[in-house]
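Q: Predict the assembly, please.
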Amino acid sequence: MAAQLESSHDTVPIIELRGLVKTYKTGAGEFPALRGIDLAVMPGEFVVVVGKSGAGKTTLVNMITGTDRPSAGVVRVAGADVHAMHEDQLALWRGRTLGVIYQNFQLMPTLSLLNNVMLPMDFCGLWRRRESPLRALELLRAVELEDHAFKLPSTISGGQQQRVAIARALANDPPILVADEPTGRLDSVTAETIFQIFLRLVESGKTIVMVTHDENLARRVPRRIRLADGRIVSDSRDQRGGG
Amino acid sequence: MNRVLLRPRWYKVLADLWGNKVRSLLVIASIAVGLFAVGIITTLDATLRRDMRLGYAAVNPANIQMVIPNFSDRLIEGLRGVKGVAEVEGVRTFNLRARNRDGEWVTITMNAIPNPREMKINRLMVLEGIWPPLKRQLVVDRYKLDELQSNLGEEIEIELPSGTIRNLKLVGVVQDQTIGSSGAGGGYFLAPAQGYISMDTLEWLEEPQRYNLLYVTVTGDSSDVRYIREVADRVRREVEKSGYVILGTSVRASDDHPNSSYTGAMSSVLYVLSILVVFLSGFLIFNTFQALLTQQVQQIGIMKIIGGRSRQVIGIYLALIFVFGVLAFLVALPLANRASLALLEFLANQMNIALLPYRPVLRATLLMLAIALVVPQLAGFVPVLQGVRITIQEATSGIRKENVTIGKGWLERQLMRLRGVPRPLLVSLRNTFRRKGRLMLTLVTLSLGGSIFIATFNVRASVSDYISRVGKYFRADMNITFSQPYRVEKVRQDLEALPEIERVEGWWGARGEILDEQGVVIDTAYILAPPAGTPLVSPILLEGRWIEPGDTNAITISERFSDIFPGIKPGDTLKLRINGEEKTWVVVGRFQLVGSSGGYVAYTSGEYLAKQTGMINRTSSFRAVASQHGMTLAEQKALAIQLDRYLRSRGYDVQEITAGLSLEENTTTGLNILTTFLLIMALLTALVGSIGLMGTMSLNVMERTREIGVLRAVGASDGIVIRLVMVEGLLIGLMSWGLSVLLSFPISTLLADAIFVALFRASWRVVFTPLGLFIWLGVVLLLAAVASLLPARNAARLTIREVLAYE
Ligand SMILES: Nc1ncnc2c1ncn2[C@@H]1O[C@H](COP(=O)(O)OP(=O)(O)O)[C@@H](O)[C@H]1O
Ligand SMILES: [Mg+2]
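A: Predicted assembly structure:
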């Protein structure tokens, strides 16, 4: 029984993109940002997406999180056809399935760190109301920000804000984390602490897709996908991570 | 852990409220000011008329008043048995002159009351001092106390027709709501000062111990004028059977306060205004929430990313809006009640109304609550939906499609083409036009407020215009009344001998009871009979013609007659009873006077009426024109004192000499109250408009904090930033002013028509005055400056880092 589960885990991709095309309509005409992407990410994988600015990385992330609609192709995440859902289904599904992390943190400015972390639990209702503050505190402890729980985001540093964003992304215990240049605004020391957190999360079984500019970080990720002009130009796997 | 008991989403509501207190105050003020205005207007509308009706009915006003010379208690006893009669009382009224501290003679109507302790009809409300007056004591009504210039306890010098001087001690002040209730007088505002004495003072004042005015109340429906007339007719037959002559009859419903036409006019104004103000405050609230919610787009995006469904996100904002609405309601309700009370007291005092104890009007409270709860939700719903609808990508990247197209619109392109415009101004201009939707809303709100403000000035001007036009019915400088008739030729020779006097006319006059087809008295008319073709009257003819030399039983009637004879027109006949004799008159024209607040006034030929009343070439009423033209009221009063002395020295029994302009002054007091009232309403709308502009401007600037930071980052000094924002504010102010001016034309006409129709049942030309226009220009520019200066200074004070982190 356990073996069976294990194997299905290994053979069914948790993220699957097939023939994905995204064309933006702009004043100057149509602009193809993604020109046919095929990609499968297995559960527990740590994937980094690199590429020059304008390559289509953010667009790709938005396709996975369902925050933007593709022009053609299929996106399956955790067994769901992402773009077949309507807005509200999508929001609930996303809240439960995906933790999203942005370059500029995107915390709610008027809420305390604790409330920021609790908000996804409030929306998705997976935890009992009395449990959620305790869980939020625990998550903040994991990113070493428990002492700042009642502060506002604007009163802490950028690195700390990104750690809160991670704690919030984990609030509903989603299997997948998607991060778009999470260290883009941070210095290299702070970036390293964030990266360490990601490594720990992968160890604990999360699947992570991370976009980055930082080649040094990218080199340390088991699977690297390079995008250029909306196409995947390379997909390399380290063998030492096993597979 | 207290802080985490609340769900985080509700915590966000509180945080938004509490986190930006200036913004919250602005939002609450914007809603509250609209509610406040709506509250006042609805409360006034409901209370004024209700209190006027109930307060008047409470004094048990006479339904029938008959002028009958010298009757006694015997007649009264006899009338008690007449069918439909409830109570009967008699009083004696007569005019005397009282001298005030300036030495001026003031006419005072004395009312001698038989049983002052237990008055049944036309009861008085004691305000100060004692009641009843004892022998040789006097109680006065508060209305013209100023004119008498006397204090309680002082002796008032009274001159009797014989020339004898008597002193009466002023012992009390009352409020008499029935002043102006007899149809024949000129109404409340034309009535002289009223004094109340006991019957045993009469002898001392050389008056007989007899009544001359009969008060009757009816049993049954005392608000049905037609029924009252039937009872009056039975009373008349009984009176005539007893051998008395009736000189005048007037009937009045128990709930028909003499000044009801003024509150009627105010109600129409309030009605028009309340619709406009509800719109105005709706726009204001809409605008405020639009501004508030555009600041929230990014947060809406975040919430959707972390799992917030539309319903949940919308719920958060509707809750926020709800709290704002409730807070605004809680602020506005007590303020509106307080202001309403103050306004009511002012109006009640001016219009002789006895207010009932104040209590909030349920309708007003409910309307305020409904507006506070519903309008913000409606206003907020659209931007919330917009916020929830935009893609997360747009929301979180901070780039909205709307912003992406900056500089591509027609207006922007035109603006950028302007040459010789300094750059900062150009930037301001672009800012102003960037958010066209917002700009439209701000403009509509402000322009509506401004145009109502300007319109009230135009209505004031129109009423004043009407007032001065009505003044042309009273062109003589002096109105001289003797206690007995004199030969016209003699008086003329005596007066025209004076260099100050240019021209003298003898006028005749009579009371005429207006009869219907069955011969039932409807009311009493005042018939004025100047020499035909007199230049001293220039009428506002509605139809037909004026009295011409050679006319006999021709008559022109005031617009008031249409109340009792709808559709009456030149060529129709009218039956009047003068001194007990019935006669048929031919209506040749209809003219406009002061509307339903005035009495039934008719003009006929002096020569003809003189013949009819057996007073050929003799009369007691004269008009004089001074040699000096365009005299002021003060000059006329001085001349009046001089004439009084001169005529007395020649042996004339002068009863009264009044300045021509004082008539106009009195006639117009009532209308002036209306214009004061309008001014107050103008201030109210100005307040709504002002706070609206303040709020919108401030929110606009707050929204652009980031942009201001960028400006500063590229080297703009505080001064430049402040100037940029101020120029934008002034620009909006100026544009709205232009729109207000345009809008003020239809709104002025609407308001003026409402007033004129309520007062006169006819329209009058609308006069447009630049006054309100310029005042509003000043107000708008000042407000725009203040409203933008404050947030501009705040924005300039933010450090660049703070600003850039403000997302
Ligand atoms: N909303 C949009 N409208 C039009 N073009 C867009 C939009 N978003 C992205 N693009 C364009 O698509 C291309 C890919 O963008 P993006 O995915 O953001 O690249 P990256 O994240 O790799 O820098 C870029 O050339 C960008 O200009
Ligand atoms: Mg990107």
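The pocket of adenosine-5'-diphosphate (ligand 1) is lined by residues A 24, 26, 31, 33, 51, 53-59 (CB under 6 Å). Chain A touches chain B through 38 residues (CB under 8 Å).
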